[in-house]
Amino acid sequence: MSADERPSAEETLLAACRALAPTVLDRTFELSLIPAPPLGETDRAERVRSWWEADGLTVESQSVGNLWARIREGDRSAPAVVVAAHLDTVFARDVPHGLRRAADGTVTGPGCGDDTVAVAALAALDRLLPAVTATPVWILATVGEEGLGNLAGARAAFDHPPAAVGAFIALEGNYLGRVNTVGVGSERRRVRIATPGGHAWEDATAPSAVHIAVDLIHAIDAVQVSHPAKTSRNVGLISGGESINSRARSATFDLDLRSESAAALDGLTAQVDAILAAASPGVTISVETLGSRPAGGIDSDHPLVAAAARALTEAGISPRLTAASTDANVAYHRQVPAVTLGITYGDGTHTEQEWIDPDAICYGLYALTRTIDQWPPSSRQS
Question: 13: which of 7, 32, 292, 293 lies 20 to 30 Å off by Cα?
Answer without folding.
Answer: 32
